[in-house]
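Example (one chain per record):
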Amino acid sequence: MSKLQVLYFPVILLLVTLQASMGGQITLDEAEPEVGDWGYRQAQGQISKVNPPSFVWRYQKDMTWQIQCALDKEFKEITYQVEQVEFNVHCPPEVFSPGSYFWRYRGRDAKGQYTQWSQVRQFSIAKDAVSFPMPTRQELLRRIPKEHPRLFMRPENLQKLSALARGEMKKEYEQLVDQCEEILASPPPTAEPPLYPPNTVRLSEQWKKMWWGNRTYTVKALNSAATLAFTRLLGGQEKYGQLAKHILLECAKWDPKGSTGYRYNDEAGMPYNYHFVRTYTFLNDMLSEEEKEICRRVMKVRGEEMYHHLWPRHFWQPYHSHQNRAWHYLGEIGITFLGEIEEAEDWLWFATNVFFNVYPVWCDDDGGWHEGMLYWISYLNRFTWWADVMREAVGIDAYKKPYFSQVGYYVMYLMPPGKVGGGFGDLTAFWKSKRNASIMTVFATQAHNPYWQWYVEQVGGPEPVPGYIGFIRGALPKVEPKSPVDLPTSRLFRGTGQAYLNSNLLDATKSVQVVFKSSPFGTQSHGYEANNSFLLWAYGQRLLIRTGYRDIYGSEHHKQWMWSTRSVNNITVNGEGQEKHTATVGGEITDFKTTDSVDIVVGEAGEAYEYLDRFTRAIIFVKPELVVIYDRLVAKEPASYEYWLHALKKIEVKDQHHIHLRSEDVLCDINFLTPTGLQFEQTDQYDPNPRPRIKLREWHLTGKTTEKKKTIEFVTLYRPGRIKDKIPTGAELKQITGGYILQVELSGGNMIALLPTNDQAVLKAEELASQGKIKLRLQQQGKVEVIGLEK
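Predicted structure:
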């Protein structure tokens, strides 16, 4: 035996012995989550606000799973265990006692071999956690009616709805009849939409026209059919049913993997699927067995295509925009064809597991939303359909989940009544608060929240969803409104890293608002604006804005301008901004405090820059007249810095202490107290400009430093007000060891603030003292307040 063999023989013997003792055990993949992964849940130390908690782990092919929960990490006191779990997610069907637990899992392959147990993770369940167990598969299937209709209503409720149509909801029913008569008078075309012509360039204008055009064509046809079929159920007009049946069967002739196939064009494929199955379940008693079989064959192909696209990927990587609609559409197919298509049971079980374990994704339990107002409305409005379906078909109340119990506050704080502009995110710039009435009507009614109902009343009153869904929702109990005068005017949504600072929550035309973002979600998807960006509104006017216009998603203008740090009120370093459109580098709101008179919020985004070790942006909002933005930047090497501001109209620049912005009868005076020597440039051009059909132009002001520094601070004052108001101008910034002392004149008083440059140094000024944290004294109308971030 050679020396090398002698050296390795004990190691080989040990490995053989271990393998034998483990019975040929297969290996569990416990690789750490990567960017874009949902991650292991319950994570180590996680506190669940839902009881029972949901468990998620990394997918491994051809495995079923065993889970154990215990009171001790040695698992001597096992409190819950389950085997043969088919997905890599699990929500138990029973509640736990509040307190601390440990959990682990292992896999089992088709041969019955187990992996080793996973690492042990500790979690706890809050005392006030919401009780929300998930039904077992058998129980879930048992709850679904054997007969049709199954979506939005049950067969046993049909008589009640028909009575409402003849009685107290006769007006709403007659509106449905009017719709049906219009459809009868001008039936929608049902020829199959065309495929893209050869050599069509993706994202081109030609491509966009067909991509969206095929969607609207499909919706018109099959939504008409669903409306006809539903109305026939309530009133018995057979002519409505006959036309609905004709449309349904004509659309069933379309190639399920053709121009409206889910993978070919999901914007056409998704509405095809949910409008088709609604029509089918509403119309079921009019269809022959042969006609039903035609529909089953179509939806078997379409359902399988969706399922194989979503599973198993979606449980571990759910941060995909369109997939977060598709899963609950698949659930509608599963309910409709349960017992008629063999795979339908799997589709429903999958969708229910998504809801309990990995939905929603662009948020946290506090009710915020990463992707912006338009996509919030778009996605959650569609989700409310699934909430309706779950409530009726399987008795699950979606609004018991912590997120959905808070969801309406996102709108209330970002878009108080009278507001124009929906904050960060795609296609939000000109969004008006009154356009939120419809979805807030749904949320207020279904969550029974009086504050949200107040909001509905303020933005124009209840706005029922049109059509058959609106009719069904009209039968729900009414909610009495309550004014939010007892709520704080500002709110932090920590999970999405956004703070909405308002001087008045009741009326945006009488309010000043600062929106600030420093998000752990980074700049991914439709919430692409750079971290530590801010926006400023005052008295109904957009003052400092985010810029650009999405001519088409992923265009050069969209990617190179709107996704860049240059397009928002922020800072670039050596001409470079944050990494674009990514989840790899995020921000964090590290401090937040709100009082009746002052808000303070602090965000950190240094890791988002190639050249920075630190970028701490603090905002002090003295309501309503003063916004102080204090920036601390530390570069890896001496660097130059560019401070970007954007407005609808050209900004007047006299010097860095005298900058004036005006919009209608509202203005904002801007004063860069430090650094000195800034050089300003201004343009109304984008880099690059949008496509020629977009005529929008906005103004971009850049203040550039004249020398390179490794460490720099910006202290900038913004004084918004009406032209008729007298805006104070006095301000003094004094640098001392460890930071700055800022003194600012206010209407009827003044403010002194300590702004640290050293996290360890103690700053003192006029009886104020603070170590590494912002602290201020506010004196107005004879009242003195001391407000700080120190714990």
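Caption: The chain has five domains: 46-134, 136-359, 366-478, 488-726, 728-791.
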